[in-house]
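Task card 7
Instruction: Convert sequence to structure tokens.
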Amino acid sequence: MTQAVNQKKYAQLLSKTLPRPIASDSQLKTALSVTARLMQREELAAEETVLLKMLSILIAEYERTRYADLFQKLTPAEALTYLMDENRLSQRDFPGIPQSRISDILAGRRKISKSQARMFGERCKVSPALFLG
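Output:
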């Protein structure tokens, strides 16, 4: 069941974080910091869930435009390797995908399926299309 968003609480949360389109790496760092704090929590209030989704969209859009040239030149496996390094992720950080499968993907022995692309995209905060080459 989806919780109703309390407009007053949401407005207070927005006034603390001041989310806006990201235009620099320092703004990206701030947005990632807020996102990380929210993701570490056991449970989120409805207002925090909405903020997390909004920040994720803003982060993904900034990274998509900032790193567009880089990602166009990478294979899906190279993009995954890059994003895992940038986000300090290991194969264990993708619990829905066996580590041996991720090893095969990173080594170029397997392609990334649509469901795996969704999982990678969610965890790395990028569009799953990046992994479908």
